[in-house]
From TrEMBL:
Residues bearing PTM N6-(pyridoxal phosphate)lysine: K49
Organism taxonomic ancestry: Bacteria, Pseudomonadati, Bacteroidota, Flavobacteriia, Flavobacteriales
Active-site residue numbers: C328 (proton donor)
Protein name: Diaminopimelate decarboxylase
Function as written in the Swiss-Prot or TrEMBL entry: Specifically catalyzes the decarboxylation of meso-diaminopimelate (meso-DAP) to L-lysine.
Length: 406
């Protein structure tokens, strides 16, 4: 979609606002399935924590996607969006046995990532098909907060605990149908991914009734022009060949599963904000906008970079700006960034705003969350309205008058 379309949507729906391009989501989905077209049984489970709007879930469902969920609430959203329970995977971390059993009762595929819960669940439900999340102890990811397969990670069952894991399975007579791993996000070196895959293949040999292997995701997308990204086509060529060979060795055609989130939706998203004020100090020119890290926390949390364009003046002379928000705390989106000359009232567009942006938004400073719009077939569809004051009050319970005035 073009800048003129984004400007029209900002005018139509107001700012701040998240906009998602349906065609980009579709093209990313098709790119991934094409890269692994030589695998007979391929399944894509969208990692909905990246962007959980019902309309996005429905769009991906129409393309044939399943869902990767990490909470019972995400499972419920998936069911509400029309997904069949067997198309939903549930991979929680640190949740109670009660929540896992509640999700199991919904008919969803359970993925367990610690020995304690595995043994308890297996003792009570030995016939339930279960997937096991392995920690391969491979460091991969663009940031320590999104690297989840290393030795100090809270995620997964350590590959070094495999003998203990096998003993639990043998003692409980559990029905293990899948093995899963996820090393981290923003993976650049596919050789590291392939190395971790070999660890998963070796672990899989200990289980005789497998139906699938789940390789997680974490593929890096470009954040700026000429940025590096995961070579999906090369990974598809190499991993497909190795996976097919393993299936022959295993004696059964297994399903290869990926659970991409950011890869599918990140580049599809634009976050539009209006410039409230241009403030020049002795050393810096600030562009203060009608948003903050309550709407887009990734630059503050991860140090992530989102390319920023002045779509109101795309061909203007470039100047250096620090783009900051309206939150009463350090709230910086970009420091000394080259952007086309900005005036008060201009609309700025933050690129790569489809993944982990709205889904991590909050009401900090009692600010409202923004609207979401899906750009599809040449027009904008409102898929979440701007919040209102009534939304802030919802579920709050004031003190009785007699107590408050006492």
């Amino acid at each position: 979609m073009q800048s003129k379309d984004l400007l029209q949507l900002a005018e139509q729906f107001g700012s701040p606002i998240y906009v998602y391009d349906a065609e980009k989501i579709k093209s990313q989905y098709n790119r991934l399935t094409k890269a692994f077209s030589k695998v007979e049984k391929l399944r894509i489970n969208y990692a909905m924590k990246a962007l959980s709007n019902i309309a996005i879930l429905q769009l991906l469902k129409e393309m044939g996607s399943g869902l990767d969920t990490v909470s019972i609430q995400e499972v419920l959203l998936g069911l509400h969006a029309g997904y069949d329970p067997e198309k939903i995977f549930y991979t929680p971390n640190g949740v109670s046995l009660e929540e896992i059993e509640e999700v199991h009762a919904m008919g969803v595929q359970i993925n367990i990532d610690n020995l304690s819960i595995l043994e308890q669940f297996g003792a009570k439900h030995p016939n339930v098909p279960v997937c096991i999340r392995i920690n391969p102890h491979v460091m991969a990811g663009g940031n320590t907060n999104i690297s989840v397969g290393h030795i100090d990670s809270k995620f997964g069952i350590s590959i070094h605990q495999l003998p203990h894991l096998v003993r639990i399975v043998e003692n409980t007579k559990m029905n293990i149908v899948g093995i899963h791993m996820h090393t981290g996000s923003d993976i650049l070196d596919i050789e590291v991914f392939l190395y971790a895959a070999e660890i998963l293949f070796d672990a899989a040999k200990n289980f005789k009734n497998l139906e699938f292997l789940d390789f997680g995701s974490g593929f890096k997308v470009p954040y700026k022009k000429d940025d590096i990204e995961t070579d999906i086509e090369e990974l598809g060529k190499k991993l497909s060949k190795r996976f097919n060979a393993f299936c022959t060795e295993y004696g059964k055609e297994l399903t290869l599963i990926f659970e991409p989130g950011k890869f599918l939706v990140s580049e599809a998203g634009s976050f539009l904000v209006k410039v409230n004020v241009i403030k020049q100090t002795t050393s810096t020119v600030f562009a203060g906008v009608d948003s903050g890290f309550n709407h887009l926390i990734r630059p503050m949390l991860y140090g992530s970079q989102h390319h920023i364009e002045n779509i109101s003046n795309p061909k203007g002379k470039e100047r250096f700006y620090s783009v900051v928000g309206y939150i009463c705390e350090t709230d910086t989106f970009a420091n000394n960034r080259r952007i086309s000359e900005i005036k008060e009232g201009d609309i700025l567009s933050f690129r790569n705003a489809g993944a982990y942006c709205y889904s991590m938004a909050s009401n900090y400073n009692s600010r409202y969350k923004p609207a979401e719009v899906l750009w599809m077939n040449g027009e904008g569809h409102l898929i979440r309205a701007h919040e209102t004051f009534e939304d802030l009050l919802k579920n709050q319970i004031p003190l009785p008058i007699t107590t408050a005035t006492a």
